[in-house]
Design brief:
about 350 residues, alpha+beta, Arc Repressor Mutant, subunit A, Beta-Lactamase, Enolase-like, domain 1, five-stranded antiparallel sheet, three-stranded antiparallel sheet, about 50% helix, HrcA
Length: about 350
């Protein structure tokens, strides 16, 4: 049992209700909730002084905080975690929200990437947050690979898949490459590539380079090794993250401190920092997960929350994820079913297209 759940189990009914009302009031308004407000809404008729005592106890437990400018209370990160895990009432998906998301099914996107881009835009529009969509890796068999020189320190790998999909990836080639070494490298790779996926090719490629190094020009061998690193490297991962709706996080009345946190968030998104952390979220089982504040290693400096769910293909294999970023005072009860439904929809759409 984690600390939040342990504290919840120790609270009596009155403390639970006061705590729940404070959190719900804060999530709705963004403002501290005072004892006088609670006296009008509690099911049990108690005095404001009694409620203040309960709130002080909850503050002592680390569940509530008291901003210096107000006599009201707001939930701490620990308090929000306890609320989400033990008291959150997730409501059914709103019909209007469902219709807006379903409308993307009829979008005329030519490929999966375009479809997921449109779904990301719809998700940010419905939730008024920033949406994240992690697209699947392209897993069709390969047809052809080519190395193209763009200068002494820049080159392009052109990857043609059997289904007609083409990907271009920039990388820095080893020094001294020549047209002949690039041709030799391409010939060597293509002798192994046809009919294999990128993952399968990567697994056999480096072993083949080691085994047949004497047959290969040194420059060609270095180029092949650099190419394999590009296929499996960060450039591959970061290109798979679609971010939409960042402007939704900028409120008209945001304080300077809040704007700075959001600028940090934008910086994280632009540089796709710690993208591996987001990829790992898709490997930890089915269902929606909620990361609050510093629990979220992706954007811990932004004071934001992430609601994320993986999606699966027809074989029930997790291949990507969708999520929503917003302030920690997200309407979690509404956002969770939206993210859950969108993830299921994306999985179905990709399975149907496959």
């Amino acid at each position: 049992m984690n600390k939040a759940n342990e504290l919840l189990s120790q609270m009596n009914q009155r403390s639970r209700e006061v705590f729940r009302r404070v959190v719900e009031g804060y999530l709705e308004s963004g403002e501290p909730v005072g004892s006088r407000t609670l006296t009008r809404t509690l099911s049990e008729k108690v005095s404001a002084a009694t409620i203040r005592n309960v709130m002080q106890d909850l503050e002592f437990l680390g569940l509530l905080d008291s901003p210096h400018i107000s006599a009201g209370r707001i939930p701490t990160q620990l308090g929000l975690r306890m609320f989400v895990d033990g008291l959150l009432e997730v409501r059914d998906l709103d019909r209007d929200d469902r219709q807006k998301i379903d409308a993307t099914m009829g979008a005329n996107a030519k490929d999966v990437g375009g479809l997921l881009d449109q779904i990301g835009s719809a998700l940010s529009g419905v939730t008024h947050g920033a949406s994240l969509v992690l697209t699947p890796k392209h897993e069709a068999p390969l047809k052809h690979i080519e190395f193209v020189s763009l200068g002494h320190d820049r080159a392009l790998v052109v990857i043609v898949f059997a289904d007609g999909h083409v990907e271009n990836r920039l990388f820095t080639p080893p020094p001294g490459q020549t047209p002949s070494s690039m041709r030799e490298a391409a010939n060597f790779v293509n002798a192994l590539a046809e009919g294999r996926t990128l993952d399968q090719l990567r697994r056999v490629m480096l072993d083949e380079v080691k085994r047949r190094r004497q047959e290969l020009d040194v420059l060609a061998a270095q180029l092949i090794e650099a190419g394999v690193a590009v296929w499996d490297g960060e450039s591959d991962s970061s290109a798979r993250l679609i971010v939409r709706g960042r402007a939704n996080l900028l409120g008209d009345d945001a304080a300077e401190e809040e704007l700075e946190r959001i600028r940090q968030l934008f910086d994280d998104l632009e540089r796709k920092r710690d993208i591996a952390e987001f990829l790992e979220l898709t490997d930890q089982g089915d269902g929606v997960r909620i990361f609050i504040g510093s629990e979220n290693k992706l954007f811990s400096l932004s004071g934001s929350s992430l609601v994320v769910s993986p999606y699966m293909n027809a074989d029930r294999k997790i291949i990507g994820a969708v999520g929503v970023i917003g302030p920690t005072r997200l309407n979690y009860g509404r956002i969770v079913p939206i993210v859950d439904y969108t993830a299921q929809l994306v999985g179905k759409l990709i399975s149907d297209r496959s």
